[in-house]
């Protein structure tokens, strides 16, 4: 399902996704209509794999899309949510991350024209993974070195953690950084230790490390 008040972008996405073999269950212009069609789909037992939603939509063009995204995550946790935004809005991005980053993505609209990256992000979100725009991650990291709690990490460890923040798996990080998967695992273990997360188990350690990295 798609929700964007720009007819041009909305119809363009419908055409792009259809050409790539995706089924578009609905394409709407505002958040209220998106929630309404999701409710109908729920009653009919036909929830979508993922929803693409703009942050700013009618009537106020402030945070309607974000509030819809949060509501979708609460009411239909099995539905992936990919948020599109014209600009990096730190509060919105971190709010999505601080709850549960499974099946959540945040991309700048400029990324849509890079079709392969957009489709990859959408497919990852639909599969229950995370997908955060590299530029979003970069801008979330902008803070003074004095307040940076990650000063003990090596340059490579920060690279690995940056890839984690974008939602990539260990295998994908290895390919993107041209290192072995075992090296990625060693770097991640070192990151957990330096961030004091060795007593925390499994997936939550990864989420906590990313949240620490993003300064949330």
Q: What is the helix content?
A: 40-55%
CATH fold title of the largest domain: Rossmann fold
Strand order of the largest sheet: 2-1-3-4-5-6
Parts with pLDDT < 50 across at least 5 consecutive residues: 143-147
In what range is the share of β-strand residues? 5-15%
**What is the number of helical segments per DSSP (H or I, 4+ residues)?**
10
Distance between the termini: 30 Å
Write down the overall mean pLDDT.
84
CATH class of the largest domain: Alpha Beta
The CATH homologous superfamily name of the largest domain equals Response regulator
* Rg from Cα: 18 Å
> How many DSSP-defined strands?
6
Q: Assign the CATH architecture of the largest domain.
A: 3-Layer(aba) Sandwich
Number of domains: 2
Strand/helix succession: EHEHEHEHEHEHHHHH
| Shape field | elongated
What would you call the structural class? alpha/beta
Largest sheet: 6 strands, parallel
């Amino acid at each position: 399902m798609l929700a964007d008040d720009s007819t041009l972008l909305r119809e363009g996405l419908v055409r792009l996704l259809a050409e790539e073999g995706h089924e578009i269950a609905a394409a709407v212009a505002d958040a209220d209509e998106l929630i309404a069609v999701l409710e109908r789909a729920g009653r009919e037992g036909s929830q979508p794999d993922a929803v693409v939603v703009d942050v700013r939509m009618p009537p106020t063009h402030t945070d309607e899309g974000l509030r819809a995204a949060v509501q979708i995550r609460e009411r239909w946790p099995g539905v992936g949510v990919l948020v599109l935004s014209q600009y990096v809005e730190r509060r919105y991005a971190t709010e999505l991350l601080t709850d549960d980053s499974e099946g959540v993505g945040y991309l700048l609209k400029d990324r849509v024209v890079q079709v392969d990256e957009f489709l990859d992000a959408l497919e990852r979100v639909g599969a229950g993974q995370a997908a955060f725009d590299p530029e979003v991650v970069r801008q979330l990291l902008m803070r003074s070195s004095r307040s940076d709690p990650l000063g003990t990490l090596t340059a490579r460890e920060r690279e690995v953690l940056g890839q984690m923040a974008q939602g990539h798996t260990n295998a994908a990080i290895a390919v993107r950084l041209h290192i072995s998967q075992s090296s990625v695992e060693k770097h991640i273990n070192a990151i957990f230790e330096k961030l004091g997360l060795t007593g925390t188990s499994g997936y939550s350690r990864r989420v906590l490390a990313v949240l620490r990295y993003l300064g949330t």
